[in-house]
Amino acid sequence: MEPIYVLSDAEREQLAAVLHSVGKSPYEDYEDFSRAVGDVVARGEVPAFFADVCARIRDDRRSGAGDAHVLRNCPLDEEIPELDLDDPVADKHAKKKTFVGEAFLELFAQLVETPLLSYATRFNGDFFTDVVAINRYSGMQTGFSDSELVYHNDRTAHPVRADFISLLGMRCPDGDFVYTGFVDGRDLLAHLSEEDQLQLREAQFITPFDVFSRDNNEDLTVSEVHPILENHHSFRYLDTCTTAAPGAPESAKDALLALKNAMVRADKTRHRIRTGDLFTFANQDGLHSRDKMEINDPARARRRWLLKTYAFRDAAAAEQHADRWLDGVRGRVGD
Ligand SMILES: [Fe+2]
Protein backbone atom coordinates (compact mmCIF):
# COMPACT_ATOMS: atom_id res chain seq x y z
CA MET A 1 0.00 0.00 0.00
CA GLU A 2 1.26 3.50 -0.86
CA PRO A 3 2.05 5.77 2.11
CA ILE A 4 -0.03 8.94 2.47
CA TYR A 5 3.22 10.64 3.45
CA VAL A 6 6.93 9.77 3.51
CA LEU A 7 8.95 11.80 5.99
CA SER A 8 12.28 13.09 4.72
CA ASP A 9 15.26 12.18 6.93
CA ALA A 10 15.42 15.81 8.08
CA GLU A 11 11.72 15.79 9.02
CA ARG A 12 12.14 12.50 10.87
CA GLU A 13 15.06 13.86 12.88
CA GLN A 14 13.28 17.13 13.62
CA LEU A 15 10.24 15.26 14.95
CA ALA A 16 12.40 12.75 16.87
CA ALA A 17 14.12 15.62 18.70
CA VAL A 18 10.75 17.06 19.75
CA LEU A 19 9.53 13.63 20.91
CA HIS A 20 12.76 12.94 22.78
CA SER A 21 12.22 16.14 24.80
CA VAL A 22 9.06 14.63 26.39
CA GLY A 23 11.35 12.84 28.84
CA LYS A 24 8.68 10.77 30.66
CA SER A 25 7.99 7.05 30.77
CA PRO A 26 4.60 5.92 29.49
CA TYR A 27 5.02 2.73 31.50
CA GLU A 28 5.39 4.50 34.87
CA ASP A 29 2.51 6.98 34.60
CA TYR A 30 0.58 7.09 31.34
CA GLU A 31 -1.45 10.18 32.17
CA ASP A 32 1.68 12.13 33.08
CA PHE A 33 3.30 11.00 29.81
CA SER A 34 0.21 11.91 27.80
CA ARG A 35 0.07 15.38 29.38
CA ALA A 36 3.75 15.93 28.57
CA VAL A 37 3.06 15.10 24.91
CA GLY A 38 0.06 17.46 25.03
CA ASP A 39 2.39 20.18 26.33
CA VAL A 40 4.56 19.75 23.21
CA VAL A 41 1.47 20.46 21.12
CA ALA A 42 0.42 23.40 23.30
CA ARG A 43 3.89 24.96 23.00
CA GLY A 44 3.57 24.86 19.20
CA GLU A 45 6.56 22.53 18.82
CA VAL A 46 4.90 20.06 16.43
CA PRO A 47 6.34 20.55 12.92
CA ALA A 48 3.69 21.85 10.52
CA PHE A 49 4.11 18.96 8.06
CA PHE A 50 3.13 16.45 10.77
CA ALA A 51 0.13 18.44 11.98
CA ASP A 52 -0.99 18.66 8.33
CA VAL A 53 -0.71 14.94 7.60
CA CYS A 54 -2.56 14.07 10.84
CA ALA A 55 -5.33 16.50 9.84
CA ARG A 56 -5.58 14.77 6.45
CA ILE A 57 -5.96 11.37 8.09
CA ARG A 58 -8.59 12.75 10.49
CA ASP A 59 -10.51 14.26 7.57
CA ASP A 60 -10.29 11.04 5.50
CA ARG A 61 -11.75 9.06 8.40
CA ARG A 62 -14.54 11.54 9.06
CA SER A 63 -15.54 12.03 5.42
CA GLY A 64 -15.40 8.29 4.71
CA ALA A 65 -12.62 8.73 2.14
CA GLY A 66 -10.48 6.04 3.78
CA ASP A 67 -9.88 4.06 6.95
CA ALA A 68 -6.37 2.71 6.32
CA HIS A 69 -3.25 4.90 6.12
CA VAL A 70 0.50 4.44 6.05
CA LEU A 71 3.19 6.93 7.10
CA ARG A 72 6.78 6.03 6.20
CA ASN A 73 10.16 6.88 7.74
CA CYS A 74 8.65 7.74 11.13
CA PRO A 75 10.87 8.56 14.13
CA LEU A 76 12.02 5.60 16.22
CA ASP A 77 14.24 5.21 19.28
CA GLU A 78 17.95 5.25 18.56
CA GLU A 79 18.34 1.93 20.36
CA ILE A 80 15.79 -0.78 19.71
CA PRO A 81 16.58 -3.60 22.12
CA GLU A 82 16.21 -7.29 21.29
CA LEU A 83 13.39 -8.59 23.48
CA ASP A 84 13.45 -11.85 25.40
CA LEU A 85 10.46 -13.62 23.87
CA ASP A 86 9.80 -15.64 27.02
CA ASP A 87 8.64 -12.44 28.75
CA PRO A 88 8.90 -9.51 26.33
CA VAL A 89 6.91 -7.04 28.47
CA ALA A 90 9.20 -7.33 31.50
CA ASP A 91 12.23 -7.30 29.22
CA LYS A 92 11.05 -4.17 27.41
CA HIS A 93 10.45 -2.40 30.72
CA ALA A 94 13.96 -3.36 31.83
CA LYS A 95 15.79 -2.47 28.61
CA LYS A 96 13.94 0.35 26.86
CA LYS A 97 15.10 3.65 28.31
CA THR A 98 13.86 6.09 25.66
CA PHE A 99 10.27 6.47 24.46
CA VAL A 100 10.40 8.12 21.07
CA GLY A 101 8.19 5.47 19.44
CA GLU A 102 5.64 5.71 22.24
CA ALA A 103 5.65 9.54 22.13
CA PHE A 104 5.16 9.38 18.36
CA LEU A 105 2.10 7.13 18.73
CA GLU A 106 0.72 9.32 21.53
CA LEU A 107 1.25 12.50 19.51
CA PHE A 108 -0.40 10.91 16.48
CA ALA A 109 -3.41 9.90 18.63
CA GLN A 110 -3.72 13.40 20.06
CA LEU A 111 -3.52 15.10 16.67
CA VAL A 112 -6.06 12.81 15.00
CA GLU A 113 -8.19 13.20 18.17
CA THR A 114 -8.53 9.50 18.94
CA PRO A 115 -8.02 8.85 22.71
CA LEU A 116 -6.08 5.67 23.51
CA LEU A 117 -7.52 2.53 25.10
CA SER A 118 -5.83 -0.11 27.25
CA TYR A 119 -6.90 -3.29 29.02
CA ALA A 120 -5.88 -3.53 32.66
CA THR A 121 -5.53 -7.32 32.58
CA ARG A 122 -2.91 -7.47 29.84
CA PHE A 123 0.58 -5.98 29.61
CA ASN A 124 0.22 -4.27 33.02
CA GLY A 125 -2.50 -2.07 31.55
CA ASP A 126 0.09 -0.42 29.26
CA PHE A 127 -1.24 1.81 26.48
CA PHE A 128 1.75 0.89 24.27
CA THR A 129 1.98 -2.83 23.65
CA ASP A 130 4.09 -5.10 21.52
CA VAL A 131 3.18 -7.29 18.60
CA VAL A 132 5.92 -9.87 19.02
CA ALA A 133 6.13 -13.65 18.84
CA ILE A 134 5.83 -14.67 22.49
CA ASN A 135 7.36 -18.14 22.77
CA ARG A 136 4.55 -19.84 24.66
CA TYR A 137 1.96 -18.82 22.02
CA SER A 138 3.91 -20.17 19.07
CA GLY A 139 1.55 -21.59 16.46
CA MET A 140 -1.63 -20.30 18.16
CA GLN A 141 -4.33 -17.91 16.85
CA THR A 142 -3.38 -14.77 18.74
CA GLY A 143 -1.58 -11.62 17.69
CA PHE A 144 1.15 -12.56 20.16
CA SER A 145 2.40 -15.52 18.16
CA ASP A 146 4.40 -15.94 14.98
CA SER A 147 1.35 -17.43 13.24
CA GLU A 148 -0.71 -16.22 10.35
CA LEU A 149 -3.97 -14.64 11.50
CA VAL A 150 -7.34 -15.06 9.79
CA TYR A 151 -9.48 -11.97 9.16
CA HIS A 152 -10.69 -10.58 12.47
CA ASN A 153 -11.01 -7.56 14.67
CA ASP A 154 -9.01 -7.28 17.87
CA ARG A 155 -10.85 -8.19 21.06
CA THR A 156 -13.88 -9.33 19.07
CA ALA A 157 -15.40 -10.97 22.12
CA HIS A 158 -14.76 -8.02 24.45
CA PRO A 159 -17.50 -5.46 25.22
CA VAL A 160 -15.11 -2.50 24.80
CA ARG A 161 -13.32 -2.58 21.46
CA ALA A 162 -10.95 -0.19 19.75
CA ASP A 163 -12.18 1.81 16.77
CA PHE A 164 -8.64 2.17 15.40
CA ILE A 165 -5.39 0.22 15.65
CA SER A 166 -1.99 1.77 14.97
CA LEU A 167 1.11 -0.33 14.38
CA LEU A 168 4.59 1.18 14.33
CA GLY A 169 7.32 -0.97 12.75
CA MET A 170 10.15 -1.01 15.31
CA ARG A 171 12.02 -3.94 13.72
CA CYS A 172 10.78 -5.53 10.50
CA PRO A 173 13.40 -7.77 8.88
CA ASP A 174 13.77 -6.86 5.19
CA GLY A 175 14.14 -10.39 3.83
CA ASP A 176 10.89 -11.76 5.25
CA PHE A 177 7.54 -10.70 3.84
CA VAL A 178 4.76 -10.50 6.41
CA TYR A 179 1.67 -8.65 5.19
CA THR A 180 -1.16 -7.08 7.14
CA GLY A 181 -4.41 -7.41 5.19
CA PHE A 182 -7.32 -5.00 5.59
CA VAL A 183 -10.83 -5.26 4.18
CA ASP A 184 -13.07 -2.22 4.56
CA GLY A 185 -16.52 -2.95 6.00
CA ARG A 186 -18.12 -1.06 3.08
CA ASP A 187 -16.50 -3.46 0.61
CA LEU A 188 -17.96 -6.40 2.55
CA LEU A 189 -21.45 -4.82 2.55
CA ALA A 190 -21.31 -4.52 -1.24
CA HIS A 191 -21.17 -8.32 -1.44
CA LEU A 192 -24.00 -9.02 1.02
CA SER A 193 -27.73 -9.11 0.17
CA GLU A 194 -30.27 -7.09 2.15
CA GLU A 195 -31.55 -10.28 3.76
CA ASP A 196 -28.06 -11.43 4.78
CA GLN A 197 -27.31 -7.99 6.23
CA LEU A 198 -30.54 -8.12 8.27
CA GLN A 199 -29.60 -11.55 9.62
CA LEU A 200 -26.07 -10.40 10.50
CA ARG A 201 -27.57 -7.47 12.44
CA GLU A 202 -29.43 -9.87 14.76
CA ALA A 203 -27.87 -10.92 18.09
CA GLN A 204 -27.53 -14.59 17.15
CA PHE A 205 -23.75 -15.18 16.99
CA ILE A 206 -21.02 -15.97 19.51
CA THR A 207 -17.24 -15.63 19.54
CA PRO A 208 -14.97 -17.57 21.90
CA PHE A 209 -12.26 -15.50 23.59
CA ASP A 210 -8.77 -16.10 22.25
CA VAL A 211 -6.10 -18.05 24.11
CA PHE A 212 -4.26 -14.90 25.20
CA SER A 213 -7.42 -13.43 26.76
CA ARG A 214 -8.22 -16.71 28.52
CA ASP A 215 -4.69 -16.89 29.91
CA ASN A 216 -5.01 -13.39 31.37
CA ASN A 217 -8.50 -13.91 32.79
CA GLU A 218 -9.79 -17.46 33.20
CA ASP A 219 -13.39 -16.24 33.53
CA LEU A 220 -13.37 -15.38 29.83
CA THR A 221 -14.55 -18.23 27.68
CA VAL A 222 -17.13 -17.03 25.17
CA SER A 223 -18.70 -13.67 24.33
CA GLU A 224 -22.33 -12.83 24.99
CA VAL A 225 -24.62 -13.50 22.02
CA HIS A 226 -23.91 -10.65 19.60
CA PRO A 227 -24.72 -9.33 16.13
CA ILE A 228 -21.92 -9.51 13.54
CA LEU A 229 -22.95 -6.33 11.71
CA GLU A 230 -23.39 -3.10 13.68
CA ASN A 231 -23.60 0.64 12.93
CA HIS A 232 -23.34 1.24 9.20
CA HIS A 233 -20.48 -1.15 8.43
CA SER A 234 -18.86 -2.38 11.67
CA PHE A 235 -18.17 -6.12 11.66
CA ARG A 236 -17.69 -7.97 14.91
CA TYR A 237 -16.09 -11.11 13.61
CA LEU A 238 -13.21 -13.52 14.05
CA ASP A 239 -13.05 -15.85 11.05
CA THR A 240 -13.20 -19.58 11.83
CA CYS A 241 -14.28 -18.79 15.43
CA THR A 242 -17.35 -16.53 15.34
CA THR A 243 -20.30 -18.81 14.69
CA ALA A 244 -24.09 -19.08 15.01
CA ALA A 245 -25.23 -19.25 18.64
CA PRO A 246 -26.78 -22.52 19.85
CA GLY A 247 -30.40 -22.59 18.68
CA ALA A 248 -29.93 -19.86 16.04
CA PRO A 249 -32.08 -20.35 12.93
CA GLU A 250 -30.81 -21.72 9.63
CA SER A 251 -30.98 -18.20 8.19
CA ALA A 252 -28.23 -17.10 10.61
CA LYS A 253 -25.94 -19.83 9.29
CA ASP A 254 -26.78 -18.86 5.69
CA ALA A 255 -25.82 -15.27 6.45
CA LEU A 256 -22.57 -16.43 8.03
CA LEU A 257 -21.75 -18.39 4.86
CA ALA A 258 -22.59 -15.32 2.77
CA LEU A 259 -20.18 -13.25 4.85
CA LYS A 260 -17.43 -15.83 4.30
CA ASN A 261 -18.03 -15.58 0.55
CA ALA A 262 -18.04 -11.77 0.74
CA MET A 263 -14.65 -11.88 2.48
CA VAL A 264 -13.16 -13.89 -0.35
CA ARG A 265 -14.63 -11.65 -3.07
CA ALA A 266 -14.18 -8.19 -1.55
CA ASP A 267 -11.29 -5.92 -2.53
CA LYS A 268 -8.54 -5.84 0.09
CA THR A 269 -5.60 -3.69 0.97
CA ARG A 270 -2.39 -5.47 1.87
CA HIS A 271 0.55 -3.75 3.45
CA ARG A 272 4.00 -4.98 4.39
CA ILE A 273 4.94 -2.92 7.44
CA ARG A 274 8.58 -1.89 7.18
CA THR A 275 10.80 -0.54 9.93
CA GLY A 276 9.65 3.05 10.54
CA ASP A 277 6.20 2.54 8.96
CA LEU A 278 3.07 3.54 10.84
CA PHE A 279 0.07 1.53 9.62
CA THR A 280 -3.20 2.78 11.10
CA PHE A 281 -6.59 1.28 10.24
CA ALA A 282 -10.14 0.72 11.49
CA ASN A 283 -10.59 -2.15 13.91
CA GLN A 284 -14.39 -2.36 13.79
CA ASP A 285 -15.29 -0.77 10.45
CA GLY A 286 -13.26 -3.47 8.71
CA LEU A 287 -11.34 -6.70 9.34
CA HIS A 288 -7.60 -7.34 9.29
CA SER A 289 -5.30 -10.34 8.95
CA ARG A 290 -1.67 -11.39 9.02
CA ASP A 291 -0.25 -13.31 6.10
CA LYS A 292 3.26 -14.73 6.06
CA MET A 293 3.82 -14.44 2.32
CA GLU A 294 7.48 -15.44 2.22
CA ILE A 295 9.56 -16.33 5.25
CA ASN A 296 13.16 -16.92 4.24
CA ASP A 297 14.65 -17.08 7.71
CA PRO A 298 12.16 -18.10 10.43
CA ALA A 299 14.51 -17.16 13.29
CA ARG A 300 15.02 -13.70 11.80
CA ALA A 301 11.29 -13.28 11.12
CA ARG A 302 10.57 -13.96 14.80
CA ARG A 303 12.52 -10.82 15.72
CA ARG A 304 9.79 -8.66 14.18
CA TRP A 305 8.48 -6.06 16.62
CA LEU A 306 5.56 -3.69 16.13
CA LEU A 307 4.60 -1.14 18.78
CA LYS A 308 0.83 -0.95 18.96
CA THR A 309 -1.94 1.28 20.26
CA TYR A 310 -5.71 0.96 20.43
CA ALA A 311 -7.82 4.10 20.08
CA PHE A 312 -11.39 5.28 20.30
CA ARG A 313 -12.93 7.04 17.31
CA ASP A 314 -13.14 10.36 19.18
CA ALA A 315 -13.59 11.79 22.66
CA ALA A 316 -17.35 11.10 22.61
CA ALA A 317 -16.79 7.41 21.81
CA ALA A 318 -14.33 7.14 24.71
CA GLU A 319 -16.73 8.93 27.04
CA GLN A 320 -19.39 6.25 26.48
CA HIS A 321 -17.21 3.91 28.53
CA ALA A 322 -16.32 6.42 31.26
CA ASP A 323 -18.00 4.29 33.95
CA ARG A 324 -15.48 1.52 33.18
CA TRP A 325 -12.24 3.47 33.66
CA LEU A 326 -10.05 1.73 36.23
CA ASP A 327 -8.18 3.70 38.89
CA GLY A 328 -9.54 6.89 37.31
CA VAL A 329 -7.25 6.47 34.27
CA ARG A 330 -9.15 7.56 31.16
CA GLY A 331 -9.08 4.81 28.56
CA ARG A 332 -8.03 1.93 30.85
CA VAL A 333 -10.75 -0.71 31.15
CA GLY A 334 -11.03 -4.08 32.88
CA ASP A 335 -12.03 -7.37 31.33
FE1 LIG B 1 -5.37 -8.14 15.12
UniProtKB/TrEMBL annotation:
<comment type="similarity">
    <text>Belongs to the clavaminate synthase family.</text>
</comment>
<feature type="binding site">
    <location>
        <position position="152"/>
    </location>
    <ligand>
        <name>Fe cation</name>
    </ligand>
</feature>
<dbReference type="InterPro" id="IPR014503">
    <property type="entry name" value="Clavaminate_syn-like"/>
</dbReference>
<keyword id="KW-0223">Dioxygenase</keyword>
<dbReference type="InterPro" id="IPR042098">
    <property type="entry name" value="TauD-like_sf"/>
</dbReference>
<keyword id="KW-0479">Metal-binding</keyword>
<dbReference type="GO" id="GO:0051213">
    <property type="term" value="F:dioxygenase activity"/>
</dbReference>
<keyword id="KW-0560">Oxidoreductase</keyword>
<dbReference type="GO" id="GO:0005506">
    <property type="term" value="F:iron ion binding"/>
</dbReference>
<feature type="domain" description="TauD/TfdA-like">
    <location>
        <begin position="103"/>
        <end position="310"/>
    </location>
</feature>
<dbReference type="Pfam" id="PF02668">
    <property type="entry name" value="TauD"/>
</dbReference>
<keyword id="KW-0408">Iron</keyword>
<dbReference type="InterPro" id="IPR003819">
    <property type="entry name" value="TauD/TfdA-like"/>
</dbReference>
<protein>
    <submittedName>
        <fullName>Taurine catabolism dioxygenase TauD</fullName>
    </submittedName>
</protein>
